[in-house]
Each structure stands twice: as structure tokens, then as C-alpha cells.
Design a protein that fits this description.
Elements lengths: L2 E4 L7 H12 L4 E3 L6 E5 L3 H11 L8 E3 L3 H7 L4 H10 L4 E6 L15 E5 L4 H10 L3 E5 L12 H8 L5 E4 L9 E4 L6 E4 L6 H6 L1
Parallel strand pairs: 1-8, 2-8, 4-6, 5-9
Antiparallel strand pairs: 2-3, 3-7, 4-7, 5-6, 9-10
Helix pairs in contact: 1-5
């Protein structure tokens, strides 16, 4: 049975943040809030936890996971970023965007696009997520909490607890954070290309393209 933490969405309790990080480090799968919607997360190098997330989502082997990072310096470890891309990232992070970038050798091959060798990267602007990432000191491997056969992510933490209590190790109740996913922008080929329009404003990228 999963644990259930009520963490304040503006001033996260450090005691609960540290317990959340301990669960992640022990191989746990957690449900946590972001600035777009709730997500499933685990440690980057934990293949077993990643497969559990894939099972919850009924995702195929090509499912794209995202590395959720705390800041730009962390992004540079996992993605190739030139000066132009850096300026774009700096202007739009943290925020509700997922950026597709060329992966570095630090990214496990199973997380990369099999042909393009890219990875989704994002820096959420949510106090709970930021607190966890700061304590963890490395990214979270993440996937939107979208259950099979449903068109929208789950939004009610109590429902998440009820439906996933035997499949995840922790549900973090951080209040409402909506059901609109991130805007996805592909920066892997130089000029930005908006792949999906979500919560983030796509206009700066469509104008640049």
C-alpha cells in the first residue's frame, strides 16, 4: 500500500520532502504535482521502477519519458545545448514546457528516442517539485499521470490514492495543478518546432521557427 503525504503547495514541509526523496532513492515510484499536471516519477537509473511506470501507463517500448531537472545547469549534463538553445531555455524555464534536445552520454539509451537520440527535458515551476529536486540533487525520470483508456490526466490526489495505492509507493497531495499538459518544443534540429500546444505559451517559438 502506498504512502500519502499532504505537502503544502507553496511552502513544502522539508520533513516530508526528505521522506519523499528517501522513497525515490529506495527504488520507489511516486506521484507528484508539477506546474502542468500530476506525474509519475522515479530515479533516472532505476530500470525496474521505470518498467513499473510503463506498466501503469500501459505504454509501449517506445514511450517517451522526460527528465525533470531543477535548473539549466542540470540540463547541460543530460542534453547538448548550444548558445542559441541556451538563451531560449533561459527565457522559458522554469515553466510548463518540455523541450526535445539531443541527449548526452549521461542519458541511458533506454530513455533516448531510438533513432534520433533525443530526450525530453523540463524544469517545472512548482515549489514541491523544486524542493524535491533540490534535495535529490539529480533529475527525476517522469511521465504524465495518464491512465490507459483515459483522455485526461488524473487531477484528484484522493482518486490517485484509491486507484494506484497498490502500484505506487507514494502519492503526494499538493492540491490542484490542472489537467493541461506541457507545451512540447523540439529544439534538437536548431530552429524550434512546436510539437504539442499545452499550458505553455507557444507563440515565442512559432515566431522563431
Amino acid at each position: 500500500m502506498s504512502q500519502y503525504f499532504c505537502i503544502h503547495p507553496e511552502t513544502p514541509q522539508i520533513r516530508l520532502v526528505r521522506r519523499s526523496v528517501a522513497i525515490l532513492r529506495a527504488g520507489g515510484v511516486v506521484v507528484y504535482p508539477t506546474d502542468s499536471c500530476y506525474a509519475l516519477g522515479c530515479m533516472v537509473g532505476d530500470k525496474a521502477a521505470m518498467e513499473r511506470i510503463r506498466s501503469i501507463r500501459c505504454a509501449d517500448p517506445g514511450h517517451n519519458f522526460t527528465l525533470v531537472c531543477r535548473d539549466l545547469s542540470e540540463i547541460a549534463t543530460y542534453a547538448r545545448v548550444d548558445n542559441h538553445t541556451f538563451r531560449l531555455l533561459k527565457a522559458h524555464t522554469p515553466g510548463p514546457y518540455t523541450f526535445i534536445l539531443r541527449a548526452t552520454h549521461e542519458v541511458p539509451r533506454r530513455l533516448q528516442h531510438p533513432k534520433r537520440k533525443t530526450i525530453g527535458i523540463r524544469v517545472p515551476q512548482h515549489p514541491i517539485t523544486q524542493a524535491i529536486l533540490t534535495e535529490l540533487r539529480e533529475p527525476i525520470m517522469s511521465s504524465t499521470l495518464m491512465l490507459p483508456g483515459e483522455s485526461l490526466p488524473l487531477t484528484d490526489p484522493q482518486e490517485m490514492r484509491m486507484r494506484l495505492e497498490h502500484r505506487v509507493d507514494l502519492v503526494i497531495d499538493g492540491g490542484s495543478c490542472g489537467s493541461e499538459p506541457t507545451t512540447v518544443v523540439d529544439l534538437s534540429e536548431g530552429a524550434p518546432q512546436v510539437i504539442r500546444i499545452g499550458r505553455g505559451n507557444p507563440v515565442p517559438f512559432t515566431r522563431t521557427h
